[in-house]
């Protein structure tokens, strides 16, 4: 199974050039260090002065508890190059960019850790598109012209509400891995959660922030990491004040797959339908198009969880007259033709929808953001073969961050910045949820982790954000999974939901970005009073 956000990541981060051996194994990259600079940003009319810190912390594979000794062993082994010596255990040098507001007392100042997902993505997108003090200028719902790209003051930076720490996952960005079985040590659901938990606790110690209010913000696969972290950090005696999810995917059973490959699994088509309808509405492919999107989606959600769900559950026993009726309803909501929908057996996959919606114009919609559209590469293919939204923004983000890191942050490590790495197919998806005695061989689901974290800390607040035009992690899938979160009624009010007329990366739409900033900043301020 290939998840849509993994295909989108592949487009966002093309296969990187093979790294030179000394880039990976050179011990200089496994010695914690930092550079510091000063800056200011104006948010809501207020000038905020800050200190920027670009640096690395070294974490080790799960089970290696003596971190200081491990660091020394990695460095010593790399320096000696002794063929008779065993290869040191795996280590990751994790890159981060932190922003601390000047003059704010660290004891009471909120601290937020932010990361993207993939798996295999750096945090360049949240950093340079959403909440860092600088933002790259890109076209909204259209292709961004080539360099030179604009880098401007980000008036929607979250520095008005919290200090910020953007973290690159092991192997991405300027982060690197080394040592014995390094890929197995870090490229997996539980291994990844462990690395981030280790990083966060080290960071709290290094910068004296143990008593600061703490928040985690994850996007895409980062929401799976974030939900797992809420519990993993509790196991290290760290309670979060808040967990913020953007474009969430906590249960991979909800990811659409080809019905020819995985028949009888119908739920993914149900939760994806509202996003298909939103996309058809946006591109004027809905007959008698309603003036407002949200009431239209209310109707589609009711159909998806009602008549449509019942029809799919009947499988081959669905009467022909009912099959025709459902196809007519689907056509009215999605803009796809009845004959096409009958050929698909009423089950719409994301890649086919992207290519089919505007096939008469030889146009393909985006994956991460279906508002974007581009020329179809292969008119005879069954599925879309690229993501126009990724192609429209990726070069701008990568170029802007490379310049910003070296010229503004003065961080010049002498290695390639990797916006993403192609590890999706090699990722270890086994996860050991609370209560299980071993990792499960199944699609990962961190709803049990989040539920346990909320039960153990009834003050933990959760904020869910998403875009209506996101096929990669459909907004209604997020609604559905959290409706099934196994927590008592008293804790359900600890979750709030916000959805925007944008895509996976909500911040690509300026109006949605402004609204999300205000919602997240408000969430931080409200939850501070809960302690």
Automatic annotation (TrEMBL):
Residues of the signal peptide: 1-19
InterPro entries xref list: AB_hydrolase_fold (IPR029058), Peptidase_S10 (IPR001563)
A matching Pfam family: Peptidase_S10
Annotated GO MF terms: serine-type carboxypeptidase activity
Keywords: Carboxypeptidase, Glycoprotein, Hydrolase, Protease, Signal
GO terms (BP aspect): proteolysis
Protein name as annotated: Peptidase S10
Organism this protein belongs to: Sphingomonas sabuli
């Amino acid at each position: 199974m290939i998840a849509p956000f993994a295909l989108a990541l592949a487009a966002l981060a093309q296969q990187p050039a093979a790294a030179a051996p000394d880039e990976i194994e050179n011990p200089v990259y496994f010695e914690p260090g930092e550079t510091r600079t000063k800056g200011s940003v104006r948010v809501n009319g207020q000038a905020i002065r800050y200190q920027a810190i670009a640096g690395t912390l070294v974490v080790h594979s799960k089970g290696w508890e003596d971190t200081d000794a491990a660091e020394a062993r990695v460095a010593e082994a790399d320096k000696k190059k002794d063929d008779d010596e065993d290869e040191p255990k795996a280590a990751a040098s994790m890159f981060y960019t932190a922003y601390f507001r000047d003059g704010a007392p660290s004891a009471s100042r909120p601290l937020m850790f932010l990361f993207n997902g993939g798996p295999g993505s750096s945090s360049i997108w949240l950093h340079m598109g959403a909440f860092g003090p600088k933002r790259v200028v890109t076209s909204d719902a259209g292709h961004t012209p080539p360099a030179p790209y604009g880098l401007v003051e980000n008036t929607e930076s979250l520095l008005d509400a919290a200090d910020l720490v953007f973290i690159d996952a092991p192997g991405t960005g300027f982060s690197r891995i080394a040592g014995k079985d390094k890929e197995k040590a870090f490229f997996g659901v539980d291994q990844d959660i462990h690395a981030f938990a280790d990083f966060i606790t080290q960071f709290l110690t290094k910068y004296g922030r143990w008593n600061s209010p703490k928040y985690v913000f994850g996007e895409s696969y980062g929401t799976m990491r974030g939900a797992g972290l809420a519990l993993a950090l509790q196991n290290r005696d760290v309670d979060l004040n808040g967990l913020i999810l953007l474009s969430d995917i906590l249960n991979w059973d909800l990811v659409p797959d080809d019905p020819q490959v995985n028949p009888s699994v119908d739920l993914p088509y149900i939760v994806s339908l509202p996003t298909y309808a939103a996309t058809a509405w946006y591109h004027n492919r809905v007959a008698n198009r309603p003036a407002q999107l949200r009431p239209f989606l209310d109707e589609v959600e009711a159909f998806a969880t009602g008549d449509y769900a019942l029809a799919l559950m009947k499988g081959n026993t669905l009467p022909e007259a009912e099959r025709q009726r459902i196809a007519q309803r689907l056509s009215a909501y999605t803009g796809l033709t009845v004959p096409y929908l009958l050929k698909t057996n009423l089950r719409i996959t994301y890649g086919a929808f992207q290519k089919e919606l505007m096939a008469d114009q030889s146009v393909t919609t985006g994956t991460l953001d279906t508002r974007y559209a581009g020329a179809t590469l292969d008119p005879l293919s069954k599925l879309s073969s690229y993501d126009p939204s990724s192609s429209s923004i990726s070069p701008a983000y990568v170029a802007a961050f490379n310049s910003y890191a070296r010229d503004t942050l003065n961080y010049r490590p002498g290695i390639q910045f990797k916006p993403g790495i192609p590890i999706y197919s090699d990722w270890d998806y086994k996860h050991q949820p609370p209560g299980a005695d071993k990792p499960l061989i199944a699609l990962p689901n961190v709803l049990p982790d989040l539920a346990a974290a909320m039960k153990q800390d009834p003050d933990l607040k959760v904020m869910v954000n998403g875009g209506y035009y996101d096929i990669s992690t459909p907004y209604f899938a997020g609604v559905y999974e959290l409706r099934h979160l196994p927590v008592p009624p008293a804790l359900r009010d600890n979750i709030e939901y916000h959805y925007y007329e944008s895509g996976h990366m909500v911040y690509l739409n300026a109006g949605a970005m402004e609204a999300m900033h205000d919602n997240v900043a408000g969430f931080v301020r409200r939850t501070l009073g809960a302690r």
